[in-house]
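Hi support team,

I submitted a single chain yesterday and got back a structure, but I'm not sure I'm reading the token output correctly. Could someone confirm the output below corresponds to the sequence I sent? I've pasted both exactly as they appear in my results page.

Thanks,
R.
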Amino acid sequence: MPTVAKYAKETFWALAAKAAAFIFYYALLFYLTRRMTVDAWGNWSAFVALLNIILLTSDQGVNVASKRYIAQARNDESLPEVIRSTLVLRLLASLAYTAAIAALLCPLLRLLHQESLIGLMQRSLLLVALYGLLEYFKNLFEALHRLRFTFLVNFIEHGAKFALVLLLFRGGDDFVAIVTAFTIAVGLAAVAGLLFATGTIPGILKMAVAWPLALRTYLYSLPVFLMSIGGFIALEIDTIMLKNMSDAYQTGIYSAAKSIVIYLPHLSLAFSMGIIPGLAVFDAESAAVNRRFFHRTLLAISGIYLLISGGVVAFAFFGVGIFFKPEYHAASTPLLFLTPFVILSGVSGYCGNLLDYRGLAWIRSLNFGVTIILNVLLNLWWIPKWGAVGAAASSIAFLPYCALNLWQADRAFTVDAVPKK
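Hi R., thanks for writing in. Yes, this is the structure output for that exact sequence:
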């Protein structure tokens, strides 16, 4: 298949996967905000912010590190062994992480003065254990450039979440029902991912584990893990700080605004899923061609995000009153201040995925360190003054991260920039 046609096909499936997630995510957002008061939504959002940090750091960098080695072996006879080795590493990492969270949960929540969440977090431990495995299969299909399976897994996960919440959730602050729905949905999607993987690459479960490869993957996962910790904290720390420095109402309207934009960066991830795995592997002859293609697609993505940002502004003025019930209408102001985040995170995400595939995740980690520090400082300064609007304005902290990722992504097309193995 010609390269451009292959990129187009995989990008189509990546966009379809994200579209499925978008549709069910916003449908669920609409349903939950209709069934909860602003204060209840604020309390739920504060819980979800903590849960998301736990869920997303459960990756420990293993999934991103795994897809680098899987992509390198994509056309090699060692592929089943690579998948088997990284899958076993994923399982061991998930079990160890879940055990650690179970042990640390109570003292951690007491330290954060969130003792009321202990029971709900304990009910989420199975979700934590399953989430890393599900994300492994998504990264596997991305690295294999077989994104139709990513679409199917995403459809199952998000469709089941929405259907089960409709079935189990009765409104108010019955958060246990939502956690139960999410756990079942993630479990179903993880099983589907395993079935698709074994059907696509026969012999995965029969191969011996290459422990040296597993060790290399783990060592590469460490800088990825540091970056992911920073990334997830940077995305959620504003909600947690707002809840502790303000009140449930301010947290509720900010979370409503943030919920509108938080999924928009996934569009650039969809493009990167379809394009970056092919662009990231090159030699001296193809480096210049791949660089040009990368910059052209980056320019197109930037243009798309400018249009999306205009849509967010229009939604802040005219759509908030339609989508949310009246008590949420104050979310329009923080939504306007979140507009820069849409562009900055979309561009930086596309560049960052290239750095991961080129073995430069440690550089991306250093870049994000600047954002974490700046984000926390801005929240400490602006939340006491402006509440939800201050938390939204702190998203400008993503500017240096975006600029540094752009610079490093261009340099990554130097053939000797990083060893391939």
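A quick pointer for reading it: Residues 287-323 form the longest helix (37 residues). Let us know if anything else looks off.

Best,
Support desk
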